[in-house]
Amino acid sequence: MRINDLFLAINWYFGKNSIKFPKVYTIDETIDIILKNRMSVSRFGDGEIDLMLKINHPKFQKEDNRLSEMLWKTFRKKDNNLLICIPSPLGDCDFSRFTNSAKKHWKRFIYKNFKKIYENYDIERIYGDSLVTRNYIDLKDKSSSEAYFKKIKKIWDNRNVMIVEGLFTRFGVGNELLSNTKKVNRILCPKKDAFDKYDEILRKCKENVIGKDTLFLIALGPTATVLASDLSEYGYQAIDVGHLDIEYEWFLKHTEKKCEISNKYVNEVNNTMGEDSDTLNDCEYEQSIIDRIH
Fold it and tell me: Whole-model pTM above 0.90?
């Protein structure tokens, strides 16, 4: 253990007794609530928390004061149709279910930032688990992953779905994740700094949707967190699906490590995905694209 990590662990050991930990549903419970109540979902992972607390920012989304303010507004929102999700490790500090690399990540994130993090939670609230879309690669025991994917697919069973995603995200393309939908349309957004186009993205979502029963699945980093909240206010069910598709691809490959996926942008590996390396030839995917935001 590095000296800095040892210092953080000691600081956490003496500081944790003064913390009131938030309550977080399990992944199963989170999916059940979404299914039962047709809830929209705004997920707050480490990237969103970084942006809110101005600790850091994901490499695909620069810092933005307006984004930070909108994340805070969403985080504090009380809406019976919107499930606010946070990482379950913040609730129980149980790292045993994670792989060594994931365990190290969450320990360091919590130990380093707990004084800023824990003062902002509503102790009277029960949060969903934002790792509901991270149900494979970071789990030590992956035996439940298949059941999780089957269960989460029920959310869009026989539904008209609007995918709002970054360029080259290609959620559900080349796999069976969306095989049980009624129809899929897509709005393509910038693969980096999507929040720069937020107002246009929200407007395009409202212009292109067909009926209030349409389900929005949004894979757009921190922008998805606030977009799901805003669309919920307009009466739509909107879910921030994060890395769910990539997790499903890794599950299908039975891989133990994060790896590139052909013709898809994977921000967590040294990905070179771009126009020059794009070899996708999929008519169904192309026909599903109804709008593009550059």
Answer: yes
